Model the fold of this input.
Amino acid sequence: MQDITPSSMRSLTLAAKLLSMVLVPVLGLCFFGLTVSWEKWQVYQDNVVLERNSAVLRQIGSSVHELQKERGRSVGFLGGKGQVFVNELREQRLATDQALAGLENLLRTFDASPFGQPFQDRLRAGVENLGKLGERRTAVTARRRLPPLKRALTTPAPSPPGSTWSSPCRTSARMRTLATASPAM
Done:
């Protein structure tokens, strides 16, 4: 049998030959191990961001729910000429304030830029409307009527060209126009 090893391999010691046979697979193993670890780290970081965003969305939902409950109690208070729902409204305002404080705390570190400009605009408008809550509460307590707030989180959907369908927002506006323009019967 003929020896096919290169002359440089013949001059290496047995330890050097064994080291070269083991070193290549170990380096490959290290490379793929680091690659997989990096990918797992990226998944972990994505999950941290998702968790933070989910917390903000849950708190937005909770705050909206508490605001809706306060709105309902305010309607009852106004409908009862300030004699009904007095204590319930006071308690609900505290619950709403608590939910809004939690939301404000989460929004301090929330980065809305990955969600795009339309979302950022709606979020900004919603937060601006929340700044008017004290004024609106004062008006309810004094049983004064205020104009509606700018719609922050909903926008009318455009109607397809040539369609008879229109969004509920436009339909409501059209109905209000007709109701105020038509003579009373």
User: Anything to note?
Assistant: The two ends are 116 Å apart (CA to CA). Residues 14-79 form the longest helix (66 residues).
